[in-house]
Amino acid sequence: MCEKRASSSSYDRIELGMEELRRGPWTVEEDTLLIHYIACHGEGRWNLLARSSGLRRTGKSCRLRWLNYLKPDIKRGNLSPEEQLLIIELHAKWGNRWSRIARHLPGRTDNEIKNYWRTRVQKQARQLKIDADSTTFRDAVRCYLMPRLLERTGSSSSQAAPSSLDAVTISAATTAAADQARQASPRDISDASMRYYEPPGPEIRSPSTSPCSTVLPRLPATTMAESDVAVTFNPFSSGYSVDVSAYDLDTWDIASLSASLPSYAVSEYTVCNNNCSRNIGDRLWSMDELHDMLRKLPE
DNA sequence: AAGTGATCCAACCGCCGAGAA
DNA sequence: CTTCTCGGCGGTTGGATCACT
Fold first, then answer.
1. Tell me: the pLDDT tens digits for A6-32?
2. Alpha carbons A215 and A225: distance in angstroms, whole number
3. Cβ contact A282 with chain B strand, < 7 A
4. One MF term from GO for this chain (predicted)?
């Protein structure tokens, strides 16, 4: 909160022309002033707002404070597995277009997503001594992190997923494809790595499809076009993947993803420890296992 | 309990593009 | 066409807090 840093020694002032502008952490009084002003006059015209509201802040500062902190629909707290999954996929697609990514995560700000990426995802890449933008790291994320996120996503959305939704079959790698891959690079396939790809329990598998197929609810028609296969699973190439290109991303958001995910039971491989509440990212990443995973990736 | 390093995240900075003058 | 202002964006900083020893 703003009070948290109110006593900071960094709290200082700068001179700009005739006017003395404040910098540093916002006080409760300033927040209140900004909220009341916007309630009366609306957002926008930030420089005018800064001048006429009585706040000794720059328009930019007011805008940032409002958008990143004070806006009523701002969601606080840890990112859900669904949100992490979406961030990873969208970042793979768009790169550091934080504001664009943020538009698909209601209540989350570009700043928050940027911080998440830099502090958690890039940290893992640094420790692995690989570029976070490299295909190697992306493969590691797809093969290792995403299955876990999907597992957790499934468990967290199992209560919310309406059973009345139409079902679509999500194709996993076929047995034939698996055999092909096994022949192509047998060293890539091991019991140790396969366990991360193990599809969820038999109760959610479709009996009429391949052994790896699972059934996902169809996304609401209002948020998703006539695209059926949005989540694919190929343990022998790129692992689990939410194919965001299958969606119209300008109208797609986390609610769509959440609604589309299967009612997975939490598998025995879930590393979540409910006692660890501070950082969900850390719960999902295990460096030893990720290192192990990377060794198994094709060159 | 104290010290230290790691992590988180609010806030700032500089740059850029759009639009108005 | 040029200049200026403003809003938006991505990158960076640094204090607070947490975790570990």
1. 333 333 333 334 456 788 888 888 888
2. 18
3. yes
4. DNA-binding transcription factor activity
